[in-house]
Design a protein that fits this description.
By secondary structure, the protein is an alpha/beta fold. It folds into 2 domains: about 190 residues, 2-enoyl-CoA Hydratase, Chain A, domain 1, CATH 3.90.226.10; about 45 residues, Lyase 2-enoyl-coa Hydratase, Chain  A, domain 2 (Orthogonal Bundle). The chain is built from 10 helices and 9 strands. The longest helix has 18 residues.
């Protein structure tokens, strides 16, 4: 029996999605892209309060499956709009946090998938490679936005124009990933962070991830207005009331995600 291309597990509020095409270094086929989008939607309905993305085998994701069903066509922009954009737009629009555990090489669109996480952990032996220029293409799937907002113009152009691999050390120094960890600690550390987020005040966490995204483009006055609106909404949640009660009672809060 053919193994599933995406492994899906929902436990303790954490939706773990593992790209499972190790023989293709977890290259993105159109079927895998659709499966990821569908799994996110179903996971949210099932009560997921955090998402953990990772890859099976020795790679995180080698990018589009150029030698297989990667959606390669004469109109690549159409391919992106039909297959890639729905997934990356869905990830950005989630009301729950996303943790990426980059267990191995993340190349091409795989870089965008890795960096779509709110908290990105990278194994020491892993690397990022924005290798589009090496095959005569340009970065896509939001990689340009994600890297430019995190690493700045000079670093983005260096990565995009030279198409060289960037080590985990360099990615951490450039501000592209939150943490670099030992290879054998990656899965445990990433799961611990995802579980911590899943046990947190879900409404506030969802507002925070969108608030930060908005702040990357908005002026100060607009950002403060967004903060005020979000604070009003967060202040009306049961989790806020629980947080205050727990603080007064000097105990750990028991957030319910409400």
């Amino acid at each position: 029996m053919t193994p599933p291309i995406l492994l899906i597990a929902l436990e303790d509020g954490v939706l773990t999605l593992t790209l499972n095409r190790p023989e293709r270094l977890n290259a993105l086929s159109t079927a895998l892209l659709a499966a990821l989008t569908e799994a996110l939607d179903k996971g949210v309905v099932a009560g997921a309060r955090a998402v953990l993305l990772t890859g099976a085998g020795r790679a995180f994701c080698s990018g589009a499956d150029l030698a297989g069903d990667g959606g390669v066509s004469p109109n690549l922009g159409e391919t992106l709009e039909q297959f890639y954009h729905p997934l990356f737009t869905r990830l950005a629009g989630l009301e729950i946090p996303v943790v990426s555990a980059v267990n191995g090489p993340a190349v091409g669109a795989g870089v965008a998938l890795a960096l779509a996480g709110d908290i990105v952990l990278m194994a020491r032996s892993a690397y990022l490679q924005l290798g589009f220029v090496n095959i005569g293409l340009v970065p896509d799937a939001g990689a340009t936005w994600l890297i430019a907002r995190s690493a700045g113009r000079a670093r983005t152009l260096e990565m995009a124009l030279l198409g060289e691999a960037m080590s985990a050390d360099e990615a951490k120094a450039a501000g592209l990933v939150a943490r670099m960890v030992a290879d054998d600690a990656l899965a445990t550390d990433a799961q611990a962070i995802a579980r911590r987020l899943a046990c947190g005040p879900t409404v506030a966490i969802g507002l925070i991830r969108k608030q930060v995204a908005a702040a990357l483009d908005a002026p100060l006055a607009d950002t403060m207005a967004i903060e005020a609106g979000n604070q009003t909404r967060a202040g009306r949640t049961a989790d806020f009331r629980e947080g205050v009660t727990a603080f007064v009672q000097k105990r750990a809060p028991a957030f319910k995600g409400q």
